[in-house]
Specification:
325 residues, 10 helices, alpha/beta, 27% helix
């Protein structure tokens, strides 16, 4: 099969489109014929091996899994031992390592039926980004109707879903983004839009019940200024940044863990998103009911996946970029 493969850490120039062996599903896995896979900051970090502290998980000298890509939408091709409830031809979506390929093996606990109202390209944009937003707002921040929520990085992949989920949970949502993306986030339901080039939301005097930071460009002290005295700050790492440091955005997480016990009424938390069939079912229901809709800015063929990641890295893509297979 054809796949986008990487034998060493580096820029998008290290990615090669070449022939590799088709994977074989093991126990509890299914082989999926990939129709589309979206590009995430996750792919950029694994491509670069950045931050250095993360290489214990990624692979010390080279990527442990040489095929890039994390989320997908496609059709079940074959079942591994012990798999029930699925059949070849079923349309599914979810997460797995190595989705920039014609086929991928996925665990049954990390996939589910594709939303019927979404194309494969739209469905592929959902799993990682929307699940991160879902867990951040619903499970970590415990957002309730009537609360005020600020999303820093509202026009990105996770941010566009966070704006929609905040509204679905009954919150008043303020979106921080660039002026060029203001109309996009308004169309997704944002009640107020802050152009970060013209206004510093941490010094504007307004305080929020929940601040979801998806950028990592503010200190904890600045972010706390935007919180109500009993507000909740949720950090979500993984944005594209100028790499090369040992810890990268993880430094903010380490500071949070040190300062959280001394926050005096404020909750300082982080989200570590884990995919599950239950989460995918919730996201499917939200998509089919029209409460969330993926926004796809660009699509690239599989052979140009390196260019898709380069676009995410250099051009600060809005919403989602999708690779079609």
């Amino acid at each position: 099969m054809k796949a986008v493969v990487q034998d060493r850490y580096g820029s998008a120039d290290t990615l090669e489109f070449r022939e590799v062996d088709r994977p074989v599903p093991g126990a509890g896995e299914v082989l999926v014929r990939v129709h589309a896979a979206s590009v995430n900051a996750y792919d950029w970090h694994f491509m670069r091996g950045d931050p250095l502290l993360g290489r214990g998980m990624m692979g010390l000298r080279r990527p442990r899994n040489p095929v890039r890509g994390r989320d997908f939408a496609g059709r079940v091709e074959a079942l591994g031992p012990g798999v029930t409830g699925l059949a070849p031809g079923d349309e599914v979506y979810g997460e797995a390592d190595g989705t920039f390929a014609e086929f991928v093996c996925a665990r049954t606990g990390e996939l589910g039926p594709k939303p019927v109202n979404l194309t494969f390209e739209q469905a592929a944009a959902v799993p990682l980004a929307a699940n991160t937003a879902l867990m951040a707002l619903r499970d970590v921040a415990l957002v309730r109707p009537g609360q005020s929520v600020l999303v820093n990085g509202a026009s990105g992949g996770v941010g566009t879903f966070a704006v929609q989920l905040g509204k679905a949970f009954g919150a008043e949502v303020t979106a921080v983004c660039s002026a060029r993306n203001a109309e996009l986030v308004r169309s997704l339901g944002a009640d107020r839009v802050v152009d970060y080039a013209r206004e510093d939301f941490t010094r504007a005097g307004r305080r929020f019940d929940v601040v979801l930071d998806l950028v990592g460009n503010r200190s904890l002290g600045e972010l706390r200024r935007a919180l109500s005295p009993t507000g909740t700050l949720v950090l979500s790492g993984g944005g594209v940044y100028e790499g090369g440091s040992a810890v990268g955005p993880m430094g903010l997480f380490l500071k949070r863990r040190f300062l959280a016990p001394f926050a005096r009424g404020q909750r300082l938390l982080e989200v570590s998103a884990r995919q599950s069939t239950a989460h995918l079912a919730t996201l499917r229901d939200l998509a089919e009911s029209g409460k969330i809709a993926p926004v796809v800015e660009r699509t690239y063929p599989l052979a140009e996946a390196a260019e898709a990641i380069r676009y995410l890295e250099v051009e600060h893509a809005r919403a989602k970029v999708v690779v079609t297979v």
